[in-house]
Amino acid sequence: MPRVLVTAFEPFGPWETNSSWLTLEQLTSDLPASPQIVTRRYPVDFAALPALLERDLRENFDAALFLGQASGAAAISIEAIGLNVACEAGDSPDEARPLVEDGPVAYRTEAPVEQWARGLRAAGIPARVSFHAGTYLCNATLYMAHYLIERLALRTPAVFIHLPLDLSQCVVSPQPHQASIPVEISAAAVRWILAELADRPLL
User: Which member of 87, 138, 146, 196 is catalytic?
Assistant: First the structure.
């Protein structure tokens, strides 16, 4: 049976919860029979991220799905590209730095992201392909995962999925009228992707 790493982030900034963690909690309340899932919750911490990723990726999973929150988004966003760019929250673009000094400019996920987005929409779930995961921790996760997989000679395909806010977060949102999707829909999207990985492994 395939083994898949699925990660989410803790709350950050003004948020008391994180839609990625809410989604992962919802997912684990009704796990699919396959693939076998291993979950992790990561801190929102640039300095801690590389060691956590290396620790987990060394288990040589059949795939790694990284989940993150995308405030303001109205659809599931499957990220295609991770950039070798890092900005801390609040930094201006001219304060950006490389994530890895000797790393390539970018990595593209091996996952069939366009096919997955079409499949999710056909299943009634709003989804799209995104070619820019930002310059904060979500992008860093996608890029660093690929960099470590390459450096450690692993075969694990890595995917990052941005999830909209959950409805419960909008009730206490610091910014009114935020777009949102019920966490059950976000969990259904991740469950659909896991079913694809079980039926059509990326390796």
Answer: 138
